[in-house]
Amino acid sequence: MAETIDKAVARRRTFAIISHPDAGKTTLTEKLLLFGGAIQLAGEVKAKKDKIQTRSDWMKIERERGISVVTSVMTFEYGDHVFNLLDTPGHEDFADDTYRTLTAVDSAVMVIDAAKGIEPRTLKLFEVCRLRDIPIVTFVNKMDRETRDPFEILDEIEAKLALDTAPVTWPIGRGKTFAGTYHLADNAVRRGDDEVERVKVNGPDSNRVAGLLPENEQPDFIEELELAREACRPFDLQAFREGHLTPVYFGSALRNYGVRDLIEALGAFAPQPRAQEADSRRVDAAEAKMTSFVFKIQANMDPNHRDRIAFVRVCSGKLSRGMKAKLVRTGKPMSLSAPQFFFAKTRVTADEAFAGDVVGIPNHGTLRIGDTLTEGEEINFRGVPNFAPEILRRVRLGDPMKAKKLKEALQQMAEEGVVQLFSPEDGSPAIVGVVGALQLDVLKERLANEYGLPVDFEAARFSVCRWISGDKGELHRFIEAHRGDIARDLDGDPVFLAPHEFGLNYEAERWKAVRFDAVKDYQ
Ligand code: GDP
Fold this sequence. Notes:
By secondary structure, this protein is an alpha+beta fold. Helix content is 29%, strand content 29%. It contains 15 helices and 33 strands. It is globular and about 80 Å long. Guanosine-5'-diphosphate binds next to helix 2.
């Protein structure tokens, strides 16, 4: 029987993993999929990455540098829940991609290396989550190695993130003696992820716990657990949902500890798909009519087909195969004839998807980042951000005969969000902007491989870019007075280009009625 919308929504958990490189995100992802039954053998996430890399030339960059550029989505089921895990690039040069992906999740798992604590990239990604009130579940990984004291880790989270912590489990032993997790509130033990169910015990001094630890460590464990109970906050669902408190789990993704605890936590506490803000109203996930938005475009996932996939997050209703949707930006109807789900190994045709699900929609350039699809309603979802590029370059083309082709190629890359493209008002050649230098490498590689356009980059005389808006007359006067420093982005919105921060600040002082923005929401 077809699933009702209410039930489908209640079952879904859409989340991302945030972490500093090397903390164990890939390993944890593999294990989530393994225990979720989405893959047969751990190691296939990496194996799949390798396969795609050999299939696709432009991803050579990834392979050479050992970084993950591509965002993907993985779906698995565990117990009664359907989990959509949105993967994000690890390297900070692709931060804008990560931020856009975080607009499509309802919660996040923060993975921390138990020896290293909060690292810079964890902090940055956490701040993005906080801006969006995304609740965070913490997984302290690598408990099988030399670690810091768990209390110290909790203190560091509280101090560095200004976030309350509530340990839900406590590690039984650590390093070489790490042997399981103890559920503080339930008084239950799991000796590792091979045990599907936790086993109730009488307390930390029970035989089951004693059997797991060397005799000389037992008194310390009992004492530590007492302290954890007395000194730490209890878990508070509301505080978690509001983003003030994080439940903390300990484990080892590599050795299969704590992963089931984590999945259960996501099922039990993480929010179901939340209401999404559109320009004219809030859209509730259980509404009958389908609404969705594009947060990511991926070209040439399969170079044999030269296809372009738009990743769409469903916000309400039911997206079904073959339905006619309205693309609000153009007002035109669009037939969703082959929406796809992604699993670790394969993509399959999606017959129906509900709020919280992410489907891929193959298209030939019709869909752009930030686009809203509806069943006819005239609304636009807000909040998929565009960040002012920090590096601006002109593209130098070896063969001037190919200028038109370059223009088209750049336009396509900009629509995918690989680069931003700015056309100067004075008619001079376009300027590309990126947030991180590696994005320029990707651009160069793809222009060469996919379009046969070998290019170089040369410095533009600008290094700062801001979207300008404000009082119509004043904006017009500003644009007239600065023609040589004004360009239009892909949507035709004006930007002001300055040689340096100082130049920007100087103008901002003089033109108080003009707004200079470093972030633009896609329309
Ligand atoms: P990512 O960069 O965050 O995706 O991290 P990976 O999952 O690739 O892990 C980085 C390294 O840490 C790899 O060598 C993993 O095998 C190792 N690793 C991951 N989890 C654990 C763990 O729980 N214990 C130990 N000892 N090593 C781990």
